[in-house]
Amino acid sequence: MLSATVRTSLFSRMRESSGLPALGYPLPAAERVAVVGARLRAEPGVRSFPHWSTSNLEAWKPQALAGPRSELFAMGALRRQGYLALPDLRFPLVVLSSLPEGPLSAEQHERLWFLFELPVYEQIRSTDETLLGWECDARDGWHLACDEHGAPKLTLAELRAAGWRGAQLRSFCGCGQPCHRLVVEPLLPLRARAAVAGHSAHDGNSLLYAS
Fold this sequence. Notes:
This protein has a 10-stranded mixed β-sheet. Helix 3 packs parallel to helix 4 (about 105-115). With about 210 residues, it is of the alpha/beta class. It is built from 6 helices and 10 strands. It has 2 domains: about 1-125, 3-Layer(aba) Sandwich (Rossmann fold); about 135-210, no CATH class.
């Protein structure tokens, strides 16, 4: 049970961050999730450390981590070198990816596994940390967040301009849910993105890029 001091601190953080996007951690069993290098909505069990230090992370004793890949790489390196002790860490990582970064590469997945030995879920976030897409247990692309009219918040033009390749599908995901789903290939090199941005989108199972 939370003490009165802890409850007061939590409610204060929740009020201050009520307008921020939520994390949406995929596994409810994780009781303490640290969001590093970003500020998201404070919720029971979720705390943001936009400017983290080893001491405040160790004091929080997170069971799971979420944050941009650069922050997780830095934390993992400190942990491997013995400068950061997170003994309770045992739930999957959540990588917050931006459109310009593109999806994690196979090499980056391997590096995160080497550093943490934990599975990874990836989310696509806008510049203001709004959730645009997320991976589910099926790991077959991303579910796309939709607006109040049911249209994906992430447009094909935005994806093409950022160099993403693949397809946007309206179908059942492997997890069993009907959704707008994004299935992508690795990010294009920067020099190739301008040409891709000019390609027209197709209706139906819309192609983001066709080679």
